[in-house]
Amino acid sequence: MIAETVCSAVSVAGLGIAAVTAYRKRFLAAARTAAYALVPLGLVMTGAVGWVVDTAFSPTAWAGFGVLGVAWLTFMGTRAVERRSGGTRKERKAAAKAARSGAVAPAASAPSLGPSAGATPAARPAPKAGAADDFSDIEAILKKHGI
Questions:
Q1: Positions in the chain short of pLDDT 50
Q2: Closest CA to 70 of 82, 78, 58
Q3: CB-CB contact of 32 with 15 (8 Å)
């Protein structure tokens, strides 16, 4: 009952402010203020305010919100654990089954170096004398920072 009275008073005050604004020839602002002022009155007339008041003062409703919160936390916790453990339940079952059966991954074959590669590795070109100069500036920076 008090919520409906407060909402009605807010609407009347807002409509009064809109009237004063319209008197000052600011019709766009007055229309916007009137629109905002009619919202609480509309909420009262639709029964939304009564529902909110009944929910806010109902211990059963708050217990329901608590249960929803616990359910959400449990769901998010299980998702986090599942992501950390790696994979889905089916993937973990398959990995456990493979571990129990003693299956071993096949040995990898020697890498293919291409059709032109022979048995001996290709000779590397000798480093240029200027290659050491490439790292001198890096060494100077490291020494400057004591590394």
A1: none
A2: 78
A3: no
